[in-house]
Amino acid sequence: MKIGFFDSGIGGITVLHDTLKVLPNEDYIYYADTLNVPYGPKPKEEVKKYIFNAVEFIIEQGVKAIVIACNTATSVAIADLRAKYSVPIIGMEPAVKPAVEKNKNANKRVLVTATALTLKEEKLQNLITKLDDEHIVDLLPLPGLVQYSEKFEFEEEVVLPYLKEQLLNYDLNNYETIVLGCTHFSYYKDMFRKLLPSQINIIDGNAGTARNLKRILGEMNSLGEGSGKITFYNSGIESKDKNEIEKYSRLFERLDDIE
């Protein structure tokens, strides 16, 4: 059986990219909700409806596990999804815990970037309250990065000015770690590195999610014997256009280049 990956758009490819390194012998479904992306600015109940429609479709394809490769979707719907479906559902959340633990210098801060919806959701707020007893975590929404990536816009002359403007009010020398709390943001790690002081760690939850998926499949005795084949769906429509599949391939190549 295949493993299902779901995201509002192409952000989850960054998680699938890391998953292929640890689970190369699986076959995958990748579902991008391209008709409704972005989720971040939309009302919670509307987003939840999109998520459930997508997950229902993925389950109908016959999968042994589903990765909600979207921080916003996880924060909005993961508990309700697990209550409804018996298939293992692996979610994502901004890597606040490792970020706070990495913060060895008590005088330094942590900047968590994500979509506006993720940042205001109770799930993340509760996590920060639990972990951030020294009040070192700041929050920054970066919706423009979702929009740029969905347009396959990775040119520095376009994206760097946006990032510079968003970071303008932060004294970056006061920070030790920046969390990329949206899977779309990982496409821009190289640009973050150009703007940030060298001492700043840039972390996301992608590799940890991949390891968690492998652990769960191992416990289920359900590790596969596939070939790494990926079937792409755009809001429930299988992607068969060669140009479109080539665009997905270039995303994997970009991620290889910026590591």
From TrEMBL:
Keywords: Cell shape, Cell wall biogenesis/degradation, Isomerase, Peptidoglycan synthesis. Its EC number is 5.1.1.3. Pathway: Cell wall biogenesis; peptidoglycan biosynthesis. It catalyses: L-glutamate = D-glutamate. It is an enzyme of class 5 (isomerase). It holds the Pfam family Asp_Glu_race. Provides the (R)-glutamate required for cell wall biosynthesis. Belongs to the aspartate/glutamate racemases family. This is Glutamate racemase.
